[in-house]
Amino acid sequence: MWLNLPHKHTENVEFLLPDFPEAGKLHVSQMSPAMHQAVPRGTNFDVRQENIVEKMELVMGESEKGKEMRRRACENKEIIRDATRDEENYKGSSVKAMEEFFNAARLN
Q: What residues does each domain of the chain span?
C-alpha cells in the first residue's frame, strides 16, 4: 500500500501522485500544516543506489539495530493482520471502519 502513496523525489514544489490520474499533481501548498511541520523543507529521503546494499545488510544482519527493525516489522505485520481479520466472530478495526463507511454512505 505505501507504494501508492505520494513520494517527493526532488526539491520541486510539485510532485506526482501515482495511481491518482484524476488528481495529477499535488502542490506543496496543498499539504496540511501538520505535514509541513513533520517534514521540514529541504528534508531528503532519497536512498541512493550505492546505499542499498548497506541498508539491506543493516536490516538483514545480526546487529542489534537490525534485530530491532525485524522485531518491529513482525509486530507491525501482526497489527495489520489483526486489523484486516474478517471472521464470523471477530472483525478487525479496518474491517469495522470500512463497514461503518459503507453503512454511512447508504444512509445518505
A: 2-38, 59-107
